[in-house]
Amino acid sequence: MQQHYQRLVMHLLPDAYLLANTLSDAQIEQFMQGLTERQQEFAEKYRDTTQSQARVRYRERITDNLEEWFGSLSAQQEDVVSQWVNEMKVTTADWVAFHSRLRRELTHLFTLRHNEALFSAQLQALLFAPEQFYSPVLRAKFQYNQAISDKYLVEIVRLASDKQIAYFRGGD
């Protein structure tokens, strides 16, 4: 998936440059204002979220994804999801800060829109390696959560029934 994403972005990069180069300052300001408003809405929505509420969201998201892949989960798999969610580090505030940083980087990127080499290099950095803009705290939490996810996903697959495997393969 990552390789496909990178090929797609590389294919669209020249068009992104052309589009950015044709935008007026007013259009860029309007785009950035819309982006800022969406980020503020996200931040506001999750500002007072407790760790417990965040874990409920994580559980729902993980369960939905797993059910998309395997169909209904067994009680044992649901227990594994509970363990998984309880071990994860909550990252909501860290993602809000990350999105603010990306917005600042994007603002800077638009100042380079008339310099194809600089614009393309910076756009590639934003699209191919957004993790370079993670704070050290977000990076550590993300890596930890990824390791936890890998561990529990293996356990979910190990517990998969023949029917779930067939569902995953598209046979059911």
TrEMBL record:
It holds the Pfam family DUF6279. This is Uncharacterized protein.
